[in-house]
Amino acid sequence: MAGYKVQQQRLSFGGKSYHFVSYDAQPGNERRGVAPIGPMWYLMRAGKRWPVMPQVPGQAESETVRALGSWLVKGPLAGG
To answer: How many CB atoms lie within 10 A of CB 14?
Structure first.
């Protein structure tokens, strides 16, 4: 059984470079009221990560890059 393979994408937008990393699904914890999270793309910045969008298994790299770029255009950190 193959394990999860982390993926990374770097995009430039507005003269800045952005680093996105995919992370595997996280199981929930009913006792603590934590819902499960599917595989996601996160923006990595200043030692922190922000959820961006769900990762779509088998999605073409060009589609992923386009979706991440679209998020940057609309995203809350686009101006920061």
So the answer is: 9
Residue type, 23: Y
Indicate the helix (H) or strand (E) that contains 48. Answer: strand 48-54
Q: What's the CA gap between 79 and 54, in Å, rounded?
A: 22
Confidence of residue 77 (pLDDT cuts 50, 70, 90): low
- Please answer whether residues 59 and 50 qualify as being in contact, where contact means their C-beta atoms are separated by less than 8 angstroms: no
Give the 3-state secondary structure of residue 30. Answer: helix
Prediction pTM value: 0.83
CA distances from 24 to 7, 11, 12, 57, 58 (A): 10, 21, 25, 11, 14
